[in-house]
Task: inverse folding
């Protein structure tokens, strides 16, 4: 089943541990969503969430999720303590999101931005002003990373 990017973002935020300095800014959240979507496309030939990822100046962004957390600026996003993972999210999907978080969550937002700028799905978009990064290009690229 395809989920909302907002729900996947909330799952990622649940995995953070602000008490030990493990915080997620909007910039970092956007990159983690991109990696979760990319690896899901590569492994399952299907999207994890339905919304498009766009190529913005600072890397891949899901515009609706960006707007949802824009009020936090460049600071840490607070977790929604009342959020419950939807029943439609499978254990396999949770495991994939957790693995993405463990691998990429250790990096700063700026390091993640640098990484995404070096990758074909973002680099090959001619006009970076909100052009959609196709799910096809993401799946093809991430298949080389699994």
Result:
């Amino acid at each position: 089943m395809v989920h909302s990017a907002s729900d996947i973002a909330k799952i990622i935020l649940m995995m953070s541990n602000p008490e030990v300095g493990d915080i997620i800014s909007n910039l970092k959240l956007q990159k983690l969503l991109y990696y979760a979507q990319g690896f899901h496309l590569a492994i399952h030939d299907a999207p994890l969430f339905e919304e498009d990822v766009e190529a913005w100046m600072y890397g891949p962004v899901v515009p609706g999720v960006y707007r949802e957390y824009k009020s936090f600026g460049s600071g840490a996003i607070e977790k929604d303590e009342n959020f419950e993972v939807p029943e439609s999210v499978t254990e396999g999907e949770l495991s994939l999101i957790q693995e993405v978080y463990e691998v990429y969550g250790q990096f700063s937002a700026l390091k993640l931005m640098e990484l995404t700028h070096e990758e074909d799905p973002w680099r090959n978009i001619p006009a970076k002003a909100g052009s959609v990064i196709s799910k096809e290009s993401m799946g093809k690229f991430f298949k080389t990373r699994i």
The radius of gyration is 14 Å. The mean pLDDT is 94. Residues 5-143 form one domain. The longest strand covers residues 53-56.
